[in-house]
Design brief:
Ribosomal Protein L30, Chain: A, 14% strand, 140 residues, globular
Length: 140
């Protein structure tokens, strides 16, 4: 399961990247969404790599994210059923979860070099492997 967090705006960005952000349900900065692993999702991440932070999310962080920031499409949200459905491979919409989580800016700020530099060079954007959980916890 991947988690993707938008950290930059769309000024001076190509229309392809803007459309990809829309398809990923990332309409504003500090929004997050979760996705099942697939080739098409990885290609979308590659297109918007300079605007988002993404990586694999652990179960503990996913549970905290759904309980605190999750919104149901209809009715009330049952966190246990949603988590079971997500772990079995269903998408967020199939389990009745709105796939857009509104997060706060990270407590303590982003990494030392800011949002314009890739994560592997000390910045914030790009692929974080398992480190996206730390960022999400700072933003909840």
């Amino acid at each position: 399961m991947y988690c993707v967090v938008r950290i930059r705006g769309t000024v001076n960005t190509s229309p392809t990247a803007k459309k990809t952000l829309e398809m990923l349900n990332l309409r504003r900065t500090n929004n997050a969404s979760i996705w099942v692993e697939s080739e098409s999702v990885r290609k979308m991440f590659k297109i918007v790599e300079h605007m988002v932070a993404f990586g694999k999310i652990d179960d503990e962080t996913l549970k905290e994210l759904v309980e605190k920031k999750g919104e149901a499409i209809e009715g009330k949200l049952d966190a246990k059923k949603v988590l079971e459905g997500l772990k079995s491979g269903k998408t967020a919409n199939q389990v009745g979860l709105d796939n857009c989580f509104r997060l706060n800016p990270p407590k303590g700020g982003f990494e030392r070099k800011g949002v314009k530099v890739p994560y592997n060079m000390g910045g914030a954007h790009g692929y974080r492997k398992d480190g996206v959980g730390k960022l999400v916890k700072k933003m909840i």
